Amino acid sequence: MLAWTEHLSVGEPTLDAHHQHLFKLLAEIDAMAEGGPGLDAVKAVFGELNRYIAYHFAEEEGMMERAGFPFLDLHRHSHQTIAMRVADMSAVLSAANVERVARELHGFLTGWLVHHIEIEDFEYRPFLAGGQ
Ligand SMILES: [Fe+2]
C-alpha cells in the first residue's frame, strides 16, 4: 500500500499535511475498491476528494504565487487536468459501473499522487524554502 513518507516532503509543513491527507483518502479508496463498494460510499469519497483537491490546489498555488515561483501557470494547468479527471469520473459514476470507477479512481490516484509530488511539487521546494 502506498503511503506518505519523509522523502515526499516538499519542505512546507502545511502542504505536507495536505499531501498526507490525500494519501489517507487513497487508503480509503483502496479499502473500498477491494470490497465490492456501494454507490453511496464511492459517491461520498468522490465528494470529499473533489472538495479537498480544490482546497489543496488553491492553497498550494497561493503559496507558489507568494514565493514568486516562475512556473506557476504550468503547475496550475496540471492541477486543472487532475481536478477535471476526478470530476469526469465522478460524473459518470452509477450503480452499474461503481466497481470499475472505484478501481479506476484508485489507479489514477496511485499514479498521480507520487508522480505529481516527486516531479512537479518538488520544483517549488527551493522557492518556498529559500524565499527567493
Ligand atoms: Fe501541485
Automatic annotation (TrEMBL):
Pfam families: Hemerythrin (PF01814). It comes from the Bacteria. One of its GO terms (molecular function) is oxygen carrier activity. InterPro entries: Haemerythrin_Fe_BS, Hemerythrin, Hemerythrin-like, Hemerythrin-like_sf, Hemerythrin_metal-bd. PROSITE patterns: HEMERYTHRINS (PS00550). Residues 14-128 form the Hemerythrin-like domain. Keywords: Iron, Metal-binding, Oxygen transport, Transport. The keyword GTP-binding does not apply. Belongs to the hemerythrin family. This is Hemerythrin-like protein.
